[in-house]
Amino acid sequence: MTADDSFLAISDANRRHLLEELRRGPKTVSELAAGLPVSRPAVSQHLKVLLDAGLVSARAEGTRRVYAVSAAGFRKLNIWLDQFWDA
Fold it and tell me: What's the domain range around 63?
């Protein structure tokens, strides 16, 4: 993951909304889609972008996938941003 991947991933308002929801706790696609005016397949596509950027993780729970914020992904982004505070 590069900082560019993370910034591209969070550039979309729907993905930022998903991150805000996941910040409150792990959720399934159905639970996340209930809070957005987009379809479940669209939510899945947004989650894939966030997964690819390393900002969320997913685990299988039966036939469902449960998504959560990835602290490691945000740590990398935070480290990159931190270098500008001392500049």
Answer: 6-86
